[in-house]
Write a structure and sequence with these properties.
By secondary structure, this protein is α+β, with helices and mostly antiparallel strands. The chain is built from five helices and eight strands.
């Protein structure tokens, strides 16, 4: 399979450069566009895609688990689903808290606590142990994506084309902005805008499918 740069340029067109620095800036921009698009796609993914591609991590202590850059889908304790509670409930879910909200092995809970030094951590109560472990089901949110790659690690294969489309939309938007504000070529910008509308429509359709929304085709000859 072609790498992401080739796939994006097949949709948005290739760019020309006057210097090595210009091309370096362009490839950095592609990397950023790929990362932004991947995170947008993860935000809309239907549960069916998430469940098919989950990574599972085991938790068996009170020290919490780093969930920075994770899209969580399920949290279990010894096979029992945990309910998320707000951080304000932290003191009430501790062991021997004497609170009516103190969880049990049959009704475990979790909360997420953001911490500057260590990132966001997830805590499960009652505290999981080796014999009664916690399990986190999640997708990893990419931290970097290279335009020279042809796949995204730990990312649903079905969703990668949407990442390419989203990146191509951003590239064309960038080209149009440059034509308007730097080159002041309004006529060519209008042509690019038509390409942008077509590509953005393809992107929206792909996102809708990944979100589990039915795609209805308008009957031929029918006008809205």
């Amino acid at each position: 399979m072609a790498n992401f740069r080739v796939q994006i340029e097949n949709l948005a067109g290739a760019s020309s450069f006057n210097s090595a620095q210009e091309e370096a800036d362009y490839t950095t921009m592609l990397d950023n566009f790929l990362l932004q698009s991947a995170r947008n796609v993860l935000d809309v993914l239907d549960d069916s895609y998430i469940n098919q591609n989950n990574i599972v991590a085991t938790v068996n202590s009170s020290s919490g688990y780093d969930v920075t850059n994770m899209k969580l889908s399920k949290v279990l304790r010894n096979g029992v689903g945990c309910v998320e509670v707000p951080l304000e409930m932290e003191s009430k879910v501790q062991a021997n808290s004497k609170s009516i909200y103190e969880p049990t092995i049959n009704s475990p809970v979790f909360y997420i606590k953001g911490q500057t030094a260590t990132g966001a951590k997830l805590f499960i109560y009652p505290v999981p142990t080796v014999s009664e472990p916690g399990e986190l089901f999640f997708l990893a949110i990419p931290s970097t994506i290279s335009n020279t790659s042809s796949s995204i690690s730990n990312f649903p294969d079905q969703a990668e084309y949407a990442v390419v489309l989203g990146s191509a939309v951003r590239v064309i938007q960038h080209k149009m902005n440059k034509l308007l504000h730097d080159d002041e070529d309004v006529e060519l910008a209008q042509v690019i805008q038509m390409e942008l509308q077509t590509l953005n429509q393809m992107y929206m359709v792909e996102l809708a499918q990944l979100n589990g929304m039915p795609i209805t085709k308008q009957p031929e000859g029918e006008q809205t």
